[in-house]
Design a protein that fits this description.
Helix content is 45%, strand content 20%. It is built from four helices and four strands; from the N terminus they run βαβαββαα. The N and C termini lie close together (6 Å).
């Protein structure tokens, strides 16, 4: 099973939506709340070029946020990423 890390904040509905999809699929993930962590949030901006959350990584590769995660699911590509 792939290593999944999701960076979130505690008031983010998109974070909840992404986590719900992962949970429905039975995926174990590490959640890192960056609500009060400016340093980690800045690291995310440098790594992904994005300021928004969630930021989801599968096997250390950034896949984007909730919209991108759901798009992978609709395209039938998420299961393959999660299996690797």
């Amino acid at each position: 099973m792939a290593k999944v890390v999701i960076y979130t904040t505690h008031i983010c509905p998109y974070c909840v939506r992404a986590k719900m999809l992962l949970q429905r699929k039975g995926v174990t993930y590490e959640e890192i709340d960056v609500s009060d962590d400016a340093d980690t949030r800045q690291m995310l901006v440098q790594r992904t070029g994005r300021r928004t959350v969630p930021q989801i990584f599968i096997n250390d590769q950034p896949i984007g946020g909730s919209d991108e995660l759901h798009a992978l699911e609709r395209a039938g590509r998420l299961d393959d990423l999660l299996a690797s």
